[in-house]
Design brief:
It comes from Sutterella megalosphaeroides. The chain is of the alpha/beta class. The protein has one domain: Rossmann fold (3-Layer(aba) Sandwich), CATH 3.40.50. About 35% of the residues lie in helices and about 15% in strands. It has eight helices and five strands; from the N terminus they run αβαβαβααβαβαα. It has helices at about 15-25, 55-70, 105-115, 135-140, 145-150, 170-185, 200-205, 205-220; strands at about 45-50, 75-80, 120-125, 155-160, 185-195. A five-stranded parallel sheet has the order 2-1-3-4-5, with helices on both faces. Strand 4, helix 6 and strand 5 (about 185-195) form a beta-alpha-beta unit. The radius of gyration is 18 Å and the shape is globular. The protein starts with 12 loop residues before the first helix and ends with a helix.
C-alpha cells in the first residue's frame, strides 16, 4: 500500500448502493455545480495528457486557452502528466460519488473544477490510436464523481499525431464520442492535428489557429 492510498474500512454493499442513490439525487462530497447568471463567464476545465511541455499537444492547449481567455472565459488547466493521479482500482468505495475515493492524490484538486465546468476539454497526444495513459488515468477516475459529472455540459477534443493517414483518428474519436454520449455531454468541436508529432511540425499547420478559433467560438458567455 502506498502513501497515496487512504486506509478506509470498506462500506457494506447496501450502504454503498444507498449512498450512490443519494449522490445521484443531488448529494455530493464536492460542491455542486453553481447556477449561472445570464451573461456570466463560461467555466472551462482543460485536462492535458502529454508528458512534453514543449510538444504539439501543449501548443494546441495553449492556443485554445488563449482564445478562451480572450472571450472572457474562466479557465482551469490540469496537466495530468505532471500530477499525481493513481489508477482506479475498481474497489467501489466511492460508490459513484457517495464517498471519497480511497486515493488521496491530485484528483482532489481537479474534481471540483470538473464538476463546475460548463465545458470540459480533453487534450491528448495520440498514443496507439487512443488517449495517452496519463489522460486515461484521469478519465477512469471520473468514476468517483460520476453522479456529479453525468449532467448536460459541453466537451471538446484536442489531439496531435505523427500520422497523416485518413484512418489516424477514428478510433480516438469513437472513444471520445462514446464517452460524451454516456456522460450526457454535447460535443462542440474537435481539433485532430495530423502530421503534428512535434511542436515545430504543428506550428506550420492550420491546427493551432483552429484550436484558437474554436475556443473563441465555444467559450463566449451565453
Amino acid at each position: 500500500m502506498t502513501d497515496d492510498l487512504k486506509t478506509i474500512p470498506l462500506i457494506p454493499r447496501r450502504r454503498l448502493l444507498q449512498g450512490a442513490a443519494a449522490a445521484a439525487a443531488g448529494g455530493a462530497l464536492f460542491p455542486a455545480r453553481t447556477a449561472r447568471a445570464a451573461g456570466s463567464s463560461k467555466k472551462v476545465t482543460i485536462v492535458t495528457g502529454s508528458p512534453h511541455r514543449r510538444g504539439a499537444t501543449f501548443l494546441l492547449a495553449d492556443e485554445f486557452i488563449r482564445g478562451a481567455r480572450e472571450v472572457g472565459a474562466e479557465v482551469f488547466r490540469f496537466d495530468a502528466a505532471f500530477k499525481r493521479v493513481t489508477a482506479c482500482s475498481g474497489c467501489d468505495h466511492c460508490g459513484l460519488g457517495a464517498a471519497d475515493c480511497v486515493y488521496r492524490d491530485d484528483m482532489f484538486e481537479l474534481n471540483p473544477h470538473l464538476i463546475d465546468a460548463d465545458l470540459i476539454v480533453l487534450c491528448s497526444p495520440l498514443y496507439y490510436f487512443g488517449f495517452s495513459a496519463q489522460l486515461k488515468l484521469v478519465i477512469d477516475r471520473f468514476y468517483a464523481i460520476n453522479s456529479q459529472l453525468h449532467s448536460p455540459r459541453e466537451a471538446v477534443l484536442l489531439s496531435a499525431a505523427w500520422n497523416t493517414n485518413d484512418w489516424t483518428f477514428p478510433a480516438l474519436e469513437h472513444h471520445y464520442e462514446t464517452l460524451v454520449r454516456y456522460m450526457g455531454w454535447t460535443d462542440v468541436g474537435r481539433v485532430c492535428a495530423i502530421g503534428s508529432g512535434t511542436r515545430s511540425s504543428c506550428e506550420g499547420t492550420e491546427f493551432p489557429n483552429a484550436a484558437y478559433e474554436l475556443a473563441k467560438r465555444v467559450c463566449r458567455s451565453e
